[in-house]
Amino acid sequence: MSLTYTAGSLVAARGREWVVLPESAPDMLVLRPLGGSEDDIAAVFPAFEEVRPAEFAAPNATDLGDQRAAGLLRTALRIGFRSGAGPFRSLASIAVEPRAYQLVPLLMALRQRTVRLLISDDVGIGKTVEAGLIAKELLAQGEATRLAVLCSPALAEQWQAELREKFGIDAELVLASTVSRLERGLELGQSLFDKHPYTIISTDFIKSTRHREDFVKHCPDLVIVDEAHSCVAADDATNGGTSSAANQLRYELLRRVSAKEDRHLLLLTATPHSGKESAFRNLLGLVRPELATLDLESPAGRAKLAEHFVARKRADVREYLTKEDGLADDSLAERTAFPSDRWTKDEPYKLTPAYRALLDDAIAYARDRVAAAGEQGKREARIAWWSVIALLRSMVSSPAAAAQTLKTRSESAAARTALEADLLGAPVASDSAENDRLEGMDVAPGAAESEEAGARLLELSRRAAELVGPAEDAKLKALIRHLKGLVADGYHPIVFCRYIPTAEYLATQLEGKLGKKTRIAAVTGTLSPQQRLERIEQLATGSAEDAGDPAVRRVLIATDCLSEGVNLQHHFDAVVHYDLAWNPTRHDQREGRVDRYGQKRDQVRVITMYGEDNGIDGKVLEVLFKKHRQILKDLGISVSVPDETASGVTDAVVEWLLLHGRQGSQESLFDLDGHQESFDRIEREWNSAAEREKTSRSKYAQRAIHPEEVAREVAAVRAALGGADEVRGFALEALRDLDALVRDPRDGSGDFTAQTGGTPAGLRDALAATLGGRIVEEDREIPFRTTPAIARGEAALVRTDPAIGAIAAYVLDSALDANTPGPRPARRCGVVTTDAVKVRTTLLLVRYRFHLTLPSRTGERQLVAEDARLLAYEGVPARARWLDDDAAAALLAARATASTHEQAARNHISKDLAGLPDLAAHLTEYGTRLAAELDASHRRVRKANEEIVRGLKVVPQEPADVLGVYLYLPPVASAPTVSGAEA
């Protein structure tokens, strides 16, 4: 008769030890190798294969290691854990070490039966990581089974890379360019949202009625919406153009998605207001319908909102978990290295006489055209208006953009009505803060209103083409001067332009003018999102001859196709606004690509170039940018400029320019008759938007999670899993001990390389399976990098990297098997004579297994989880005086201060091994106490919802496994007199 095995017990089969998993049945055991991963799970039928109970063997006194043996074995064991016993099921399986403040949204999510959050942290704090943590946790707990991310097409591939590299979620891209291929692989009647459980969907794609209906019908149970402010429209939106129409379309879609009460929904945006109170209320209504009408002035209303809304500035999290946050001490303090305040400077330039004459003639043409069109009708007037704006914007951008625009037909020329002319002309001529369609917005606009540009425009185009180069283009000449200064100071700048012809013009003109070791590349909308990333990576990595040369500088020329979403802080540290945007929010977006967490420079430099005498830039700077900067200074956060405000100002600028020409450019717009009333209104609207943003940050976003609660969970996670520094130190030590050739440049990056040709065959085979056979066979250098974003043949210094896992598995397996040939970095026993102790002290490395019953929306889940703990006692086992956990962990840092005779060491350790039965009761009691702590931790994290924790159980599996026994002896001279029994 076959035996019945409980979940978590040990059995021996197929020549090795296994852990029994909860999915087992009397006639079939589901087993995971002891110390193995989920990938090694196997099914065994006791009726056909021999299965017997197993006990974990005690260490052997003849197999002694050195002073580092305990630390290496402990880390190797912890790296192998993929499902810790604590309340966060996913943290052991992700390739990123989250900042403590990034756990706050996760804690908020775990207290909700159905997760509904609006995450509005400031730009660069890490909203993508926060959303990824929640998604991974919900999937790991079984609270969600499918995931969809809605984002702009320009950000889709970055989302895909972030989810894959950091969270192990392999999502399919659903874009206009991929949907045909995806649909060809479907079965009859099957939805691609059913076939692919994890998808990243572009907001452009979802606009199609057919795809929209299919998505709503088959929508996953977890949806993340990036840049959520672009998915709502204000109730009073008028003359919104294509932007508001698109917002309304997406808003209706999300209303239908959020209507399903048990669907998890995460909304991400750094600007929840976008200047409109009604838009903010509509956004809250997507989270929970009742939040849209909540009285946010009352304490009860704010407390209710705080359960679903988190909004923090950099200043709130730059230093976190300190005494200022209400903690007793700074032992868990975390300082996040955000760049300090940006170094900003406005740099004017003056037109050359030839360029000034060209611009004057262009303004005269524009004045004549607007006057003539006004007499022809409203449609013609609006077409002429947008054509004139296109002409003037490209004229002050570059000679290349001007030449292109002057001979290209206006986008609005095909309009049949005045409204249609606005819909066609506004997106390409303005810089809307809410325009989510940056794709295609960097093409040079057209100014001609018929297929054949008139002779006057063609003549202007010819003259513009003759002004290329720094001799006649003073703006280009000034840029070269500024870039030389940045490059000389060691910066790697990005130059942002409005139009593709300008970016290509600059890339050509700058070549060879910034020094022999300056590399230049241009990225525009002519490239696909993937090609853009590849070109940036090519510029960042450089050629073979550039490798390691600190004198090499990078200059990236880009249009606004890179102003949102693409993170460039690792490669660039300065921004030059070559073309002044007509909305300061666009500048914030550009600067936010480099001024964010992960930027190594403490100060990012920003240069804003503007034409002092072109009649446009000076006034836009005066009215829009100075006000924007003042609000930023006063509030500490950026407030989006309402689109109506920005367009109202720029319209007034153009009207003034047409009326007075450049000669009136020195007068202030606020002093002009007829404009004062409109500017007063603009001032009021913007101040109101700023006040709402300030209120939302200070009043509404009360902390639902106290820092003390975060500190408790951070301490528990670090105790169970360790940190990034531990993984790097382990990899370095283990590879050196295994006879790899390691080169650590100590350049501050944390990266190093290793050649593994001299390591044991078992390790080489394991590394070849993860890194590639040729790399290992040819003994090439393997880069080990601190970033999870790595290329083929590289390893990331994170616990989930397959190469790190292979090294840890080899260290652990060789420690457990004394017959392993070759070097063995870790051993299960050790004796160290050290002045770190005053009396005989023994350190135990103990592995506990727990049987967890976790309730979820889809039913109870049975799991077996592991935890590794260090326990230490003074004296002999029969009369052990147990130390606290901190004192036990401190022994890992003890170093030998005197040698220990080998035979004496064996005699000493043999006494401890013989006394292990005397320690069994304490190990069992510790496991029971640990299970109670874990149970309390699960309940504490989910305390807001009793239904979530009903049925929760954490049961320790006895006996615990003693993996290592390490004895620390004081030097003979300092050893106190002890009784004979303890001697």
Describe this structure in words.
The structure is a single chain. This protein has 983 residues and is of the alpha/beta class. The protein is 41% helix and 15% strand. It is built from 32 helices and 30 strands. It has a 7-stranded parallel β-sheet with strand order 9-10-8-11-12-7-13, sandwiched between helices. It has a 6-stranded mixed β-sheet with strand order 6-26-30-27-28-29, sandwiched between helices. Strands 16-21-20-17-19-18 form a 6-stranded parallel β-sheet, sandwiched between helices. α1 packs across α28 (802-816). The longest helix is centred in the C-terminal third of the chain and has 26 residues, at 916-941. The radius of gyration is 33 Å and the shape is elongated.
